[in-house]
Amino acid sequence: LPIAILISGRGSNMRVIAEQAAKGALMTDVRVVLSDQPTAAGLGIARAMNIPTEVLEPSKFPDRASFDRALLEVLQGYAPELIVLAGFMRILTPDFIGAYAGRILNIHPSLLPKYRGLHTHRRVLEAGDAEHGVSVHFVTEELDGGPVILQSRIPVTPADTEDSLSARVQQCEHRIYPRVLEWYAQGRLAFRDHHAWLDGKRL
Ligand code: GRF
What we know:
- By secondary structure, this protein is of the alpha/beta class.
- It has helices at residues 12-22, 41-48, 64-76, 94-99, 120-127, 162-185, and strands spanning 2-7, 29-35, 53-55, 82-85, 104-108, 131-138, 148-155, 189-192, 195-198, 201-202.
- The chain has a seven-stranded mixed sheet, covered by helices on one side. Strands 8-9-10 form a three-stranded antiparallel sheet.
- The radius of gyration is 16 Å and the shape is globular.
- The protein binds 5-O-phosphono-beta-D-ribofuranosylamine.
- 5-O-phosphono-beta-D-ribofuranosylamine binds at residues 7, 9-14, 42, 86-87, 107-109, 170, 173.
- One of its GO terms (cellular component) is cytosol.
């Protein structure tokens, strides 16, 4: 399965996916890593792994629509069948999402539908939640609102801080994102009727 990974920063999810893919573990081939931030640390990781990289800077485009058109054009050159968002901090336009309908995944550091958007660890602490976690979901036009495919949970303890939660959630991310990719590559996962399906069963 040819994929493109979109990042904006550290790229730790991208690294884990690319490493497993390189070992032949995921039936997945990372064709390109694209960042909207030229300084994203993940770009260096991808280059060191000999994965083609692309940088597309939003400031060089007059508006969101033209950025997304350029994004589509660049990505099409690599013919990915799946777009994997891994810490990509930009909202995609409906046109972009429509071009890859049911073929864009995202990982979000909360137990969706709780805490869409930013600062999820802080909001979990403020709410006094007993558990927290991470979700992999299909991307739809609704921000962090597409159908959830897989979640991983962690308990929240009184000693937890944003940093400690972030670190533990990240470990979960690195476990579940590759698994979901493998399901997709195996043809076990689908997006249909606004729902995620695994092995023909609605999730
Ligand atoms: C992760 O926490 C992910 O859930 C969120 O952005 C972060 C990306 O981390 N969407 P990394 O760049 O993969 O290290």
